[in-house]
């Protein structure tokens, strides 16, 4: 499989190189040159397969030529063996034809484990083969950091540095990162906000001289391998609800458009999906595009669903590329314009095309809490605030009651106690067994000033299993 950039100028890469790349050299994002397409018979024959075997069938075409089947199978078995629920991604019924796909049974209790548990193992495999080492520098406002550290902690050839804004992540989220020890794990609390952290990561990709020749790898969802891993659970859910003979709809709590883009790809690979709902919080750039064809940056608001607090949605470029007939020059033009501070609209027929599949809703904090309370009263299920936004959007935007509606349950409620308290359901939150002593564990973290040079000096001092690069 070959991968091409959404801006049309960077060289095509194979899977291995895409895994190790950040942005493409032309500033674009990598996408498969040709998407595999499965027949209905093929998809139907996968019903009842264990999760890792389904994962093998769905993802095999994407790694073809880079990872032999037998090795890929082993990697997938280990990856999804790390989940605490035997079904890996169980479906739970809320109402008649309404389901939550629980994606929070991985080590860090959010759906990001599906991709990052795999990413760590893929990196280790590929780097071992090549005899190389890499450094990861990632920024997190919460869930990505712990999932990335959990995914990479056993990697022989990876040193991981995660930047989080000092005193601005929840205690559960901080402890999920800082209580993991290893000479290749480095937590850095930056005296600044999340944007400061993200800017430092971007600047480090742009000028990597401080790494003395060691390669920098991306762990955010610009990394293709993350999107790829998320395609699988759309097939997994649909197969349990009568797919592919029957079509299914999904409502997806969205920030960077990564998770929902995976659903769009599943549909293009042959899975009958009737409707994809973009569910955002008050940071609603995607909703403004879907409802009014305006893609314009606005100020950032802190919400009760912090993992979706974004101003710009990086993976949206991947959808735009398809909407523009895969014309890289057109995307480069739109993005340049956007960068200059302008927003954009797309031509009417392109927007209409998108709206055939996508609907959207923006849900504020008050509605989020109301939904948590409502669902708890109706079903006894306690939702996390992100999932609650998905439920609200599903109920508002649903096109057909006859088609099963699956809401992606992106996190365990215990990660977001503030929202659950505000919802007033009065149920005590309990950490799952493997994290029950989280609040007693020792922490390890370095506080650094909001200064790029200080951070880069720290990385080059510790980037080789705690020793200088
Ligand atoms: C990251 C995250 C999201 C948003 O996912 P995107 O792929 O950025 O759209 C939603 N919910 C939770 C709990 C998350 O951690």
From TrEMBL:
<feature type="modified residue" description="N6-(pyridoxal phosphate)lysine">
    <location>
        <position position="112"/>
    </location>
</feature>
<dbReference type="Pfam" id="PF24857">
    <property type="entry name" value="THR4_C"/>
</dbReference>
<dbReference type="InterPro" id="IPR051166">
    <property type="entry name" value="Threonine_Synthase"/>
</dbReference>
<keyword id="KW-0663">Pyridoxal phosphate</keyword>
<protein>
    <recommendedName>
        <fullName>Threonine synthase</fullName>
        <ecNumber>4.2.3.1</ecNumber>
    </recommendedName>
</protein>
<feature type="domain" description="Threonine synthase N-terminal">
    <location>
        <begin position="2"/>
        <end position="80"/>
    </location>
</feature>
<keyword id="KW-0791">Threonine biosynthesis</keyword>
<dbReference type="Pfam" id="PF00291">
    <property type="entry name" value="PALP"/>
</dbReference>
<dbReference type="GO" id="GO:0009088">
    <property type="term" value="P:threonine biosynthetic process"/>
</dbReference>
<feature type="domain" description="Tryptophan synthase beta chain-like PALP">
    <location>
        <begin position="92"/>
        <end position="330"/>
    </location>
</feature>
<dbReference type="InterPro" id="IPR037158">
    <property type="entry name" value="Thr_synth_N_sf"/>
</dbReference>
<dbReference type="GO" id="GO:0030170">
    <property type="term" value="F:pyridoxal phosphate binding"/>
</dbReference>
<dbReference type="InterPro" id="IPR029144">
    <property type="entry name" value="Thr_synth_N"/>
</dbReference>
<dbReference type="InterPro" id="IPR000634">
    <property type="entry name" value="Ser/Thr_deHydtase_PyrdxlP-BS"/>
</dbReference>
<comment type="similarity">
    <text>Belongs to the threonine synthase family.</text>
</comment>
<comment type="pathway">
    <text>Amino-acid biosynthesis; L-threonine biosynthesis; L-threonine from L-aspartate: step 5/5.</text>
</comment>
<keyword id="KW-0456">Lyase</keyword>
<keyword id="KW-0028">Amino-acid biosynthesis</keyword>
<dbReference type="InterPro" id="IPR036052">
    <property type="entry name" value="TrpB-like_PALP_sf"/>
</dbReference>
<dbReference type="InterPro" id="IPR004450">
    <property type="entry name" value="Thr_synthase-like"/>
</dbReference>
<dbReference type="InterPro" id="IPR001926">
    <property type="entry name" value="TrpB-like_PALP"/>
</dbReference>
<dbReference type="GO" id="GO:0004795">
    <property type="term" value="F:threonine synthase activity"/>
</dbReference>
<dbReference type="Pfam" id="PF14821">
    <property type="entry name" value="Thr_synth_N"/>
</dbReference>
